[in-house]
Amino acid sequence: MSTAPAARRDIPEATVARLPVYLRALRSFHSRDVDLVSSEELAEAAGVRSAGLRKDLSHLGSYGVRGVGYDVTRLSEEISRELGLHHDWSVAIIGMGNLGHALASYSGFATRGFKVRWLVDQDPAIVGTTIAGLRVIDFAMLAVEAPESIIAVLATPPEAAQAAADQAVAVGVRSILNFAPCMVTVPEGVEVRKVDLATELQILAFHEERGRGDETSLKEAR
Predict the structure, then answer these.
(1) 178 is in an annotated binding site
(2) CATH number given to 89-198
């Protein structure tokens, strides 16, 4: 497998969104002691078409070896480097309600290169308490402690989300994962990714309802 650094300059957003899926599939192969995997096998594990997978990986300069496939370890390392996972990223979870508690206790962050270092809330009754082994701080303390590079996870109620995003940006945050069920506005140069659990459930409900309709049509046809 060859890699061409020049090919990595402009990777489409759609491809970037699929890289974590490929990495998860590769790690699954690695856990089963699989050293080489074909594009067809990797595509099936990732739930994409093999032609699309090959095109995605070509943006990294990774082309595999004809008749052999991809080296699982090497491709995993290549994708990890592209995703910036060659070192741990510091994470601040903002909002210590039920969702914030759950995210603070989630062990999966650490296994994927993200270290939760700060829990942030503005409620005086919560600031100073300990959750999942970390002391809850306010934004003033985050401004003192936070390094230059930090990813914020927004887990506030919707009415507090914009203010929390503004405060996060004010202390230097440039990347936000927004779990709040609303949109937030940020300055240019700040990246926001939204996780809308209700929307995802509604999409699943749509497919569930359509599946029931198909089953009903089949029964009536019989």
Answers:
(1) no
(2) 3.40.50.720
